[in-house]
Amino acid sequence: INFPRTIKHLPNVLNNEEIKALLNAPDLSKDDEYRDKAMLMLMYYCGLRVSELINFKISNINVNEKKISIVGKGYKTRIVPISDDALEILMDYINKIRYKNIRAIKEKFVFLNRYGHKISRQYFFRKIKEYAIRANIDTNISPHTLRHSFATHLLENGADLLAVQKMLGHENLSTTQIYTHVSSKR
Q: Does residue 185 register a pLDDT over 50?
């Protein structure tokens, strides 16, 4: 029996103004929101999955080469460039805020809660919704929306599809091609 094909919905993507508003939503005078800004920037500027973000380790940062090492699906490692802005916020968070917590010294993960434990997926999901409200973003977003936006914006600005595939860690090019459809729709 052949079943009717289901309609494939295109992923939600934020425009440049919405991304800028979302990244500026955290209050940098608060330590936890400074951490959240570093997380948002890493998600968007490097196209990370939530699982990759919360499992990101200090040893995965190469400051000199401005690259980070990401362990993705199937424990496959990929190297992703990181922008100067994202690297600066990330290193400021690590050096000025993260180590205020005594427990952080023993912890290998970068993003920790106030008790010195790894951030949860649910926490980050809640926080991104909160920041979207602050930024007056009406689109229903999730952490993965930042990854979709990253890929779409790269393609809209002339990036090579194969390069985007490698940065996202997609096994098949067809998975990355969905973003060409999003880009042409926009």
A: no
Tell me which of 35, 37, 98, 147 is the catalytic residue: 147
**Model pLDDT, residue 35:** 95
Active site residue 147: yes
Asked if 21 and 154 touch (Cβ cutoff 8 Å), the reply is no
pLDDT band at residue 172 under the 50/70/90 scheme: low
Query: What whole-number distance in Å separates Cα of residue 171 and Cα of residue 72?
Result: 11
pTM for the whole structure: 0.84
In tens, the pLDDT along 7-47 reads 566 667 888 899 999 999 999 999 999 999 999 999 999 88
CB 152 within 8 A of CB 183: yes
Measured CA to CA, the distance from residue 144 to residue 105 in angstroms comes to 30
Residues 6+ apart with CB under 8 A from 25: 131, 132, 134, 135
**Interatomic CA distance for residues 26 and 39, integer angstroms:** 11
- Write down the catalytic residue from 37, 49, 98, 153: 49
CA distance 24 to 70: 25
| Catalytic residue list contains 9 | no
